[in-house]
Amino acid sequence: MKVATAAYDLDWLDCWAQYEDKLEGWVSQAARQGAELLVFPEYGAMELSTLDGADVAGDLERSIRAVSDRMVDVQNLHTRLAKTYKTYILGASAPVVDGTGRPVNRAAFYAPDGSFDHQDKQIMTRFEREDWDIAPGGPLKLFDTALGKIGVLICYDSEFPLLGRALSEADLILAPSCTEALSGYWRVRIGAMSRALENQCVTVMASLVGNNEWSEAVDMNTGTGGVFGPPDKGFPATGVLAEGTLNQPGWTYADVDLSAIAEVRADGHVLNRTHWEEQAARVESVTISAL
């Protein structure tokens, strides 16, 4: 399959039609290149807050609520695009008020047949905890698709090995991200590459890019798209299948061969995924040695 992962920049929107045109432009461009799976970044939906004006877009809590209020329309748009262009789409994540509690950070996953589901972020960053008051969402899911088994670890989640291990059956793990600084981008990238190494799978990282003075939430963003695999037989020695240009908006494309994933898991030079369980006995027997 061919995957397309976004370095996505936000726009000021004066009307809903602008957002529809923008998303259709992105999706149609990737579809023309033959992409069957499209990945948008974390918090890419925050540009929708501009539809309610500068006062709302510039206020953290009000912008969260404004974006959440538009998610039904967002789902309808993405459902149509996935069906029209016959692609799977991981939509940009958004703060979603689900019930009476605090918002969760949710990325919806759309299939070409019009069906969709979602993945919520599991572990919040300090900014999400201390400033946004975003809550952990529902459980991790493994999506069984015509393209293979696909999991999603939203940004910070990709930095936690046990979350990755819970998705060890996934052929691909998608890692939509939103990072302010270069160090944040590299934390997520290192996490994504580590999950590809441990699970002997392919990870796909999307990034929010660009600066937005109108927003308190996503004012500064650094990153690019990247697709990573285990540095082993059938994959590049660096583990990097594709990477974009830092902070340059656009798609990064990569061809992913599911048979290569199956082969490296069965007969790689190393077998990290198979040997994972051997760690348990070893860590239980740690002793303190005074020198």
From TrEMBL:
InterPro entries xref list: C-N_Hydrolase, C-N_Hydrolase_sf
Chain ranges of the CN hydrolase domain: 1-258
Family matches, as Pfam families: CN_hydrolase
Superkingdom, taxonomy of origin: Bacteria
Name the UniProt record assigns to this protein: Amidohydrolase
Source organism of the structure: Ruegeria atlantica
